[in-house]
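Lab notebook, design round three. We kept the backbone fixed and only want residue identities now. Task for the bench partner: fill in a sequence for the structure below.
Input structure tokens:
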């Protein structure tokens, strides 16, 4: 079951006896755990919630807790992180997990506890007897990494939960600043919600006033400074990013990523791809393609290739200690603008 489906189901039904939460999107994992915990009384969330790391504690010790009746309240929640035994990976922790006891429990769980197995892994081993049994007796919730072309759906979901709405251009502004980072998106949207209050609408003016500026936006500004052949502006943007504690090596990668996207979009455009086809091919949000299309016409392919090579050389020089990193980045900007 996908995250959004799980949220809807949690609103309508009582807690399951067993959940398996899996995937690599940590924001979604923590978010769904909070929503499950909200199903028990607030005062019980302190006394009746236990957390275990299965890289340090055996599953049989966890089950002892699960099968112990809660001292306060009517239900307890037991979280068990890193169930490596649900994957095809070998167990290198040295902890001896008794699978038979878990298999028995899955078939006959107690009705006063909710066991949550938190598996922050890309995939589980569907061939295992335990996984198959859990599929029949537990609720599986997928917290997979968000694809760029699905981000608008997530913004819709988050704004609905926060009881507000956004003007359409605000979606693009959010994507430009936060990309697919759901944690950042949530923080920005919560900021909007406080400003416009319940059932309010976020306009582009409000968004422009409140949005936190991320390095990604400045990466595009650096590209625009290269287009304009404005070295002074490029150095100023770089200094602003340094004040934001951005690492030079990360800025080289950021600049290279911008030029790479423009290069790829230019090639796909020559092949007759539409904007949506480009987004699917490159696995990026359509807005990223839109920004690249606005810039690609100002660059020749050979110049873009030069930019990528220059970024790669600068990255190598910094990592090998051949150049002082700040000077190396300024020289990179000089090369790109004076080519």
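Proposed sequence:
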């Amino acid at each position: 079951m996908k995250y959004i489906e799980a949220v809807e189901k949690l609103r309508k039904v009582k807690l399951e006896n067993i959940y398996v939460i899996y995937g690599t999107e940590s924001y979604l994992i923590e978010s769904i755990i909070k929503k499950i915990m909200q199903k028990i009384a607030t005062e019980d969330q302190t006394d009746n919630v236990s957390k275990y790391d299965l890289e340090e504690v055996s599953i049989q010790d966890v089950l002892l807790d699960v099968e112990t009746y809660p001292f306060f309240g009517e239900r307890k929640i037991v979280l068990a992180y890193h169930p490596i035994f649900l994957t095809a990976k070998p167990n290198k922790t040295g902890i001896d997990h008794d699978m038979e006891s878990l298999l028995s429990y899955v078939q006959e769980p107690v009705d006063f506890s909710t066991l949550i197995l938190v598996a922050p892994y890309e995939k589980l081993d569907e061939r295992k007897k335990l996984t198959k049994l859990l599929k029949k007796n537990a609720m599986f919730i997928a917290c997979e990494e968000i694809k760029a072309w699905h981000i608008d759906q997530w913004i819709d979901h988050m704004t609905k939960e926060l009881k507000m709405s956004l003007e359409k251009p605000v979606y693009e502004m959010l994507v430009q600043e936060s990309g697919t980072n759901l944690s950042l998106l949530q923080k920005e949207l919560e900021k909007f919600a406080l400003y416009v209050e319940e059932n309010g609408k976020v306009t582009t003016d409000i968004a422009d006033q409140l949005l936190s500026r991320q390095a990604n936006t400045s990466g595009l500004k650096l590209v625009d400074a290269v287009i304009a052949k404005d070295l002074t502006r490029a150095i100023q943007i770089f200094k602003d990013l340094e004040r934001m504690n951005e690492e030079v090596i990360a800025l080289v990668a950021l600049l290279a990523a911008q030029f790479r996207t423009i290069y790829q979009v230019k090639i796909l455009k020559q092949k007759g791809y539409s904007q949506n086809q480009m987004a699917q091919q490159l696995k990026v949000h359509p807005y990223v393609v839109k920004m690249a299309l606005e810039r690609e016409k100002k660059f020749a392919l050979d110049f873009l290739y030069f930019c990528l090579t220059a970024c790669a050389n600068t990255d190598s020089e910094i990592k090998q200690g051949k150049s002082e990193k700040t000077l190396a980045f300024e020289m990179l900007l000089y090369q790109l603008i004076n080519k």
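Keep this in mind before ordering anything: The longest helix spans residues 248-270.
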